[in-house]
């Protein structure tokens, strides 16, 4: 059995999660052998704001996962998200090198390189170049041009960029821990890879990852990533509003939010008997403190306005993308925020689209704890890694791997350049 070790570090605003996985290269099966989650500190809205604090958290999480797996992490795929993420769709065109013969890998590399040539300020870095379709001599909709013949090769790509400062900070932390960056992956894209079905991506779907401090969006149209963005509001903001409204601590507010969400149907049934506005949170045992607020006040006044705001912003992003009429599969919500109740009900009302909650799938091993929306990005990083890492001696036939590898190679070479600056 030929296996490949792949590691992922998901640096979130609420938690840092590390996974070590073994991928069976024959069956494509992903088996998790090490996992750890540690409460995050020093990250706000996806940006590192305190490098010392986040270093400690990442170190703890990495050590935990390494101990469980009995293996050291030498390199890992890293999630990046938050409002510093931008995306743009860019085209490239080249004349094929052998007009009478077949289009070869080198033509594809050249045309993608042409599409990458966007003007970029020094404060931004490309982290993803994802081909959406190829066009050969005017014929559109081609997913894999290698082996076809033609004179003029065009490509439509989706490019994601991130703040150079933030990437540098992450690299510095990982460098200190002796971990190489296999690639920076937009967290929304990683979550999409672990939760969306092929049919959803084909028909058109919006992936929404509601984390602690931010909400990532990835829109797929005709099986290709077409739009990526991130909103600076997450599920922690709902907790803050509960704390302010009930005049209680953040810890108590978090506990109320999670208890309400985990026992939502039971709580509703209980409250129905006496009426929502008459049932207090203390009666429902939602709180350790004596808080004499009604369930109705909690949901309608302290939680709903923020949830509505999140969905209004998601609606604005969908409109901005220009793909609003092409989302036949509706919305898939994931991230820890997807567990908050009654979030999906409010979302359906505001956006008028069907919503399902997405959990990561297609993995085995130590999985029970991991197969929840909170770890969609973490598991997705491993799926991304599986498609991107080429092992020695492996046949370069898999077209996606060739394309993706281009991108990863570039990231790796940039990391090497960055490290070289510090070598005297
Ligand atoms: N069972 C639950 N019910 C309700 N909310 C939950 C539950 N479990 C987790 N959450 C919420 O999910 C949020 C954390 O989500 P997640 O772990 O996806 O964040 P993150 O990835 O660390 O953050 P980000 O992606 O924004 O940087 C917290 O606000 C937490 O309250
Ligand atoms: Mg996250």
Keywords:
single chain, 424 residues, alpha/beta, Dna Ligase, domain 1, six-stranded mixed beta sheet, 12 helices, 39% helix, 27% strand, globular, disordered C terminus, binds adenosine-5'-triphosphate, binds magnesium ion
Which series of helices and strands comes N to C?
Answer: EEEEEHEEHEEEHEHHEEEHHHHEHEEHH
Radius of gyration over C-alpha positions, nearest whole angstrom? 23 Å
- CATH fold label of one domain: Dna Ligase, domain 1
Treating each run of at least 4 consecutive H or I residues as one helix, how many helices?
12
Indicate the percent of residues in helices.
25-40%
Largest sheet: 6 strands, mixed
| Proportion of residues in extended strands | 25-35%
Overall mean pLDDT: 91
Low-pLDDT residue spans: 391-424
* Structure summary, number of beta strands: 17
Give the end-to-end Cα distance, rounded to a whole number of Å.
Answer: 43 Å
Enumerate the strands of the largest sheet in spatial order, edge to edge or round the barrel.
11-6-1-2-3-17
* Oligomerization status of the protein chains: single chain
Name of the top-level CATH class of one domain:
Alpha Beta
The computed structural class is alpha/beta
Q: What does the overall shape look like? A: globular
Level-2 CATH architecture of one domain: 2-Layer Sandwich
Ligand identities: adenosine-5'-triphosphate, magnesium ion
What's a quick, concise take on this entry?
With 424 residues, the chain is of the alpha/beta class. It has helices at residues 51-69, 105-116, 164-176, 187-195, 198-203, 235-246, 250-262, 264-274, 295-321, 343-351, 376-388, 399-420, and strands at 3-11, 15-24, 30-39, 43-44, 47-48, 75-80, 86-95, 124-136, 139-142, 152-163, 180-186, 205-210, 215-221, 224-231, 331-334, 355-357, 364-365.
